[in-house]
Amino acid sequence: MAQNTTAQHSTAQGAAAPSPAEPSPATAGAEPVLTVRDLQVSYQTDDGPVPAVTGVSLDLAAGETYAIVGESGSGKSTVALALLALAPIVGGEVRLAGRDLAGLSRHELRRLRGREIAMIFQEPMTSLNPVLTLGYQLIETIRLHQPLDRAAARGRAIEMLEKVGISDPARRLAQYPHELSGGMRQRVMIAMALSCNPRVLVADEPTTALDVTVQAQILSLLDDLRAEFGTGVVLITHDIGVVAETADRIGVMYAGQLIEEAPTADLFASPMHPYTRGLLASVPRVDLPPAGGPLAALHGTPPKPGKAPPGCPFRPRCGEAMDVCSTMPPLTRQGLRSVRCWLHDR
Ligand code: SF4
């Protein structure tokens, strides 16, 4: 976890609820490497536009890990794609190192991806080309973004494979993806993503396809590389337990909105939103065995994109719903935290 958790809320305790378009926690003392303001993403379908993300704002500092958690369909992967301008952004803005992605040409965006911002996905086998050697794929990626000749790019590829803990890297360059285990393939993807030293790494469920032991190794590796390279990491996951040791801050998404955001320790110690409390209660903990009873479960299912009820989208599943919840709660700032729930409105 980064020691310098500089990307924090600057709003004073008890500040009035801002509109979603206002800046989310500013990075104290330094320009954030990534800023998202009032992001709106909508997919065109046969039934018309379907909003997948509405009003998401966040900041990411260099060397910080920001985790976005939520159930399937909450919009977290759509946010991840939007950070690389790979999703249909219909409102708001994404700024990477001060540059608004909406103002860039396709050519500029292609150059940006890989060099300034990179992404790793859940299943590396679908990202690696099965008929090309690892060496070819790594070296071509490096040469696409850096002015290196083939020998120098090969040296960089070997160096990166060493950094991600792959033994005998020179020999591995001649191997094909199917010759490696799932964990090793994900290490290769991380090596490829970081080979051009991007400012931001977006990791979309990078450990979901791996067993628990390898999952811990990959998360630890990501954390080490973040510290070494100063890369800002956006970690997307449906499993809030996975990010406890890794993330500096956590944003919880529900029905396309960021409904709670807090430093990791604060969120685990005192979750504010009923949905976050439900998510945490459903995580198995070795220090808190269920006293002979079943593990708590979140009942119901999240609304389909564009089908949320009026007001708070969590209302049908919330045990604390009130009459006022039939209108949309504002995002309320409280010190370093923010939450979208009428229970915490001032
Ligand atoms: Fe529950 Fe109301 Fe808060 Fe929504 S706004 S989470 S329905 S208490």
Key traits:
eight-stranded mixed β-sheet, 21% strand, binds iron/sulfur cluster, alpha/beta, Rossmann fold, 346 residues, four-stranded antiparallel β-sheet, 2 domains
What's the arrangement of secondary structure elements?
Elements (H helix, E strand, L loop, with lengths): L33 E12 L2 E13 L4 E5 L6 H8 L5 E8 L2 E2 L5 H10 L1 E4 L3 H4 L6 H12 L4 H14 L5 H4 L9 H13 L5 E5 L7 H18 L2 E6 L11 E6 L2 E7 H6 L4 H8 L50 E3 L2 E3 L7
Parallel strand pairs: 3-8, 3-9, 6-7, 7-8
Antiparallel strand pairs: 1-2, 1-4, 4-5, 9-10, 10-12, 11-12
Helix pairs in contact: 4-5, 5-7, 7-8
Structure, described:
With 346 residues, this protein is α/β, with parallel strands linked by helices. The chain has 2 domains: 34-116 and 198-303, 3-Layer(aba) Sandwich (Rossmann fold), CATH 3.40.50; 128-195, no CATH class. Helices cover 28% and strands 21% of the residues. The strands form 2 sheets. The protein has an 8-stranded mixed β-sheet, sandwiched between helices. A 4-stranded antiparallel β-sheet has the order 2-1-4-5. α8 (212-229) links the parallel β7 and β8 (232-237). α4 (134-145) packs across α5 (150-163), α5 (150-163) packs across α7 (182-194) and α7 (182-194) runs parallel beside α8. The protein is globular, with a radius of gyration of 21 Å. Residues 1-24 have low confidence and may be disordered. Bound molecules: iron/sulfur cluster. Iron/sulfur cluster (SF4) binds at residues 273-274, 312, 314-315, 318, 320-322, 325, 329, 341-343. Iron/sulfur cluster is lined by residues 273-274, 312, 314-315, 318, 320-322, 325, 329, 341-343.
